[in-house]
Design goal:
Number of helices: 9
Protein name: Universal stress protein
InterPro entries: Rossmann-like_a/b/a_fold (IPR014729), Universal_stress_UspA (IPR006015), UspA (IPR006016)
Oligomer: single chain
Domain UspA: 1-158, 167-287
Distance between the termini: 17 Å
Strand content: 15-25%
Number of strands: 12
CATH architecture of the largest domain: 3-Layer(aba) Sandwich
CATH topology of the largest domain: Rossmann fold
Family: Belongs to the universal stress protein A family.
């Protein structure tokens, strides 16, 4: 997780993600690429970079010039100015981190996905703009689409993380046979945060059973985890249980494996039945099951 792509729309949440990305890059000797995608009715079919000048000096695609193009050029100039200010801020916050920036013209989701490939990104860090429920932490946003389609892990950040140090990771699962597909990704997370304790969490609708603990222990052994704990909470929904446990252990990071097609993994997706306040939620890292 050294080549980090940070899509920004200049919102408060995306700035939180930017700060977290800088801290991660500093810890891992990585690099950060800032990306802003300009999406306009005239440019939704465009698919190119504008590093160094407004559309490389060409006319706006599907435009007859005039007022539309003048507006776009002014918008591009303003955008490049905001990106420059972010780079200046990065130089002050993390002077040893290599930071590049770029502006894409096109559809937001497509632009980000293509930038992942072009820059060889191995992690996307982006702001999440939920509306007070864990399901909305992902659903109905570009974050949700990236969780579903990106072929690299996505770290969603909603709140300020001035000192992002990962010491406690919550990994919720049902620990069935399907969960073994999450092991490779979890091992990569462990490699990125070797000093963190991993909490293997099972959210039960009733009381805990010895079989559950056996499944958790078997999973830990298969994943070759050493610094881990097992936990079970009883809750009406999986999302409520995750929130409850994350608060209880003061988690720094929640890690959730997903299916490429549906976004959230099946055990989580089918269990969410009630809203969950996200004001205390730490960043959430998602990656696709193998």
């Amino acid at each position: 997780m050294k080549n980090i792509l940070v899509p920004t729309d200049f919102s408060t949440e995306s700035h939180h993600a930017f700060e977290v990305a800088l801290q991660l890059a500093k810890q891992t000797a990585g690099r950060v690429t800032l990306l802003h995608v300009l999406e306009s009715p005239e440019a939704t079919t465009a698919n190119f970079s504008t590093y160094g000048g407004p559309v490389n000096g060409s006319e706006l695609p599907n435009s007859d010039g005039g007022i539309d193009q003048l507006f776009f050029v002014k918008l591009m100039e303003a955008t490049k100015g905001r990106m420059h200010r972010l780079r200046t801020e990065a130089a002050a916050l993390a002077p040893d981190v290599d930071v590049e920036d770029g502006v894409e013209v096109g559809r937001i989701g497509d632009g980000i996905l293509q930038a992942i490939e072009r820059h060889g990104a191995d992690l996307v860090v982006m702001g999440a703009q939920g509306h007070g429920a864990m399901e909305n932490f992902f659903v109905g946003s570009n974050t949700e689409r990236l969780v579903r389609l990106a072929n690299v892990p996505v770290l969603a950040v909603k709140h300020p993380q001035p000192h992002f140090a990962v010491r406690t990771i919550v990994f919720p699962s049902d620990f069935t046979e399907e969960a073994t597909g999450a092991i490779a990704g979890l091992q990569q997370v462990r490699a990125a945060f070797p000093d963190a304790t991993v909490h293997l969490l099972h959210v039960a609708s009733g009381t805990d059973t010895p079989a559950t603990q056996q499944h958790q222990q078997a999973f830990a052994q298969h994943a070759q985890l050493t610094n881990f704990q097992t936990g079970t909470v009883s809750a009406a929904s999986t999302s409520a249980g995750i929130e409850q446990y994350a608060k209880q252990v003061q988690a720094d990071l929640v890690v959730i494996p997903t299916h490429a097609r549906t976004g959230l993994s099946r055990f989580l997706n089918t269990s969410i039945a009630e809203t969950v306040a996200t004001h205390a939620f730490p960043p959430v890292l998602t990656y696709h099951l193998a």
